[in-house]
Amino acid sequence: MTSTSCNPERGTDVPKVTLHYPNGEVRTLSVDNGQSVMKAATANMVPGIIGECGGELTCATCHVFVEPEWLDRLPGQEQEEVDMLDLTSEEPTECSRLSCQIVMSPDLDGLVVRLPKTQR
Amino acid sequence: MTTNVDREVALPNLMHASAYVNGIPHDLFDYIRSQPGLFWFPVEGPITEHGGVWILTRTKDIREVDGDGERFICGLGLLHPMMMPMEDTFMGDNLMSMDGARHARVRRVIARGFGPRMVAGFEPWIREIVTETLDELVATKGPLDYVPAVAAAIPSRVIARILGVPLEDRPFIVRITTDLFAATQGEAGQDVVANLTRVFQELFDYVETTLMPLKREHPGQDMSTVITQGFDAGEVTLKEALFLHQLIMNAGFETTHTTIGRSMWLMLEDPEIERKTWAALDEVGSGLVVDEFLRYISPVIHFVRVAAVETEVAGQKIRKGDQLAMFFTAANRDPETFTDPHTFDPWRNEAGSLTFGAGPHRCLGAPVARLQVQILFEEMAKRNIRLRMAGEPKRGYSNFINAIAEIPVEVISGS
Ligand code: HEM
Ligand code: FES
Questions:
Q1: B111 inside 8 A of chain A by CB
Q2: What residue ranges carry the coiled-coil annotation (chain B) (predicted)?
Q3: CA torsion sign, B172 to B175 to B181 to B183?
Q4: Is residue A85 part of a domain?
Q5: Rounded to two decimals, what is the model's pTM?
């Protein structure tokens, strides 16, 4: 990974997450360190992540599929998140996470996730 | 601060059932929405801390309030007249009046039973219930009341099945559901709390001594089993478990009953709505049709939140302890969200309805509710069932449910 601050294309220290949509569209989202991917997505009105419950782990409308090479680097999963993955609109896979639980840190800069077709 | 002094007509008390006896006053909500900021509605007596309530009518404002469980809480009451610390009442163990971490813990226990994929598996048996109900309907000669025959029959059967109540106890559950709703609608002077407590006790005795032991012995694919296991695993207390049973019955019954009843009423009263409904069912399917009925009807009129801190909404300063009434029914006619909002248009494909609320308390039953009504419309279309009005329909009496009491109809075709 390139160091964020040295990369002229970024021009900022804010880490980026790449979102791949089911229709092939790709978007880049800036997520502050300490902020969840869900919060950044909803604050920026990015489609595909609803985050209905505001991150309380009671809605499962912030489902994403994390690219396999990033899975191990993510913060661990609590039992509540595992339980709530049963409720996602689209069938979860081994790569499924709830994006309200993916809290940004410098080593997650460049994270790649795919969005499900539906969230509810 | 008082923004409604210039209005000439006297406003009905929007927090009271009497404001809704003739329908939803959408013209009044349109007026309120057109005023800048938030609208202050004075309420006499000790129900409010500051002598009134903020009336919220815009999608944006309600999403902000409903979506923020930290600034705006449920624990100080959800509806007039029961505005008080819920913890001091028997409602303290009800999911809807919980906040924060406790709410999340209890909600997760039942959330397991309500996911969209889980609910998709309900489809075959819901279709069976709908088919049976329609068989009974078309077999009836002469006038009948659509409310008990269809509008109440379907959701009460569905809820009994979701809970896993044995067949022989289902009439009891249906009666309790109706009594519970009636008890929330006490006239001024009536002791709402005492009425509710009495019905709750009857229900809780049944759940604790009959239903939960049954589920321990014979666990099933049903909510009572899920709740009983949650209790046995120490995730919820006994009181919380009992209240979850009550909540599923209450929340799932009157709302769906209203949707089914009012949609038929609208169709029989307005040929244009009926024509659009059958045409759209054919062209775009039951999903959009039902979503439009849900928006247009808005079965839940409003809920209240109380500000936990001093804050601001829509540029209006809100004091700690202020009440904010979130009128979902008005937001669903917000022209910023819906083009031509007062027109019933089942082809519209506009997101943003607040029929099921938003935020941490958003309705858990939305997929089940939608599915029941969708299947009903699909089956009616398939069987070419047509009705006509056979008398004067009657509204119910409620300050938070767009309630329907009676719809006299006659079957004119269908198999
Ligand atoms: C057309 C039918 C229905 C409508 C319009 C409706 C509407 C609502 C609304 C507006 C809320 C409050 C949301 C908020 O505060 O933001 C709610 C909460 C709730 N609903 Fe529904 N509902 C319906 C059917 C059902 C059904 C069928 C069930 C269950 C079988 C159900 C279970 C619940 C529960 C458990 C809650 C409380 C959630 C919480 O406090 O965390 N609802 N509903
Ligand atoms: S935002 Fe609700 S579970 Fe993630």
A1: yes
A2: none
A3: negative
A4: yes
A5: 0.90
B60 touches chain A (CB under 8 A): no
Question: Could you give the ipTM of this predicted complex?
Answer: 0.71
- CB atoms < 10 A from the CB of B44, how many? 9
Tens-place pLDDT, residues B294-333: 999 999 999 999 999 999 999 999 999 999 999 999 999 9
> What single letter denotes the amino acid at residue A85?
L
Tell me whether residue A95 is in a domain: yes
Q: Of B229, B203, B225, B230, whose CA–CA distance to B214 is shortest?
A: B225
Determine whether the interchain pair A58/B67 forms a contact, defined as Cβ–Cβ distance below 8 Å. no
Q: Chains A and B: how many Cβ contacts under 8 Å?
A: 55
Please give the distance, rounded to the nearest whole angstrom, from the Cα atom of residue B247 to the centre of ligand 1: 9
The answer for A 41-70 residues in CB contact with B (under 8 A) is 52-54, 56-60
Q: Rounded to the nearest whole angstrom, what is the distance from the C-alpha of residue A115 to the centroid of ligand 1?
A: 27
| C-alpha–C-alpha distance, residues B134 and B145, integer Å | 13
Identify the structural domains of chain B with CATH numbers, from first to last. 17-413 (1.10.630.10)
Domain that includes residue A109, residue range = 10-114
Q: Give the total number of structural domains in chain A.
A: 1
CATH number, residue A51 = 3.10.20.30
Please give the single-letter amino acid code of residue A115: L
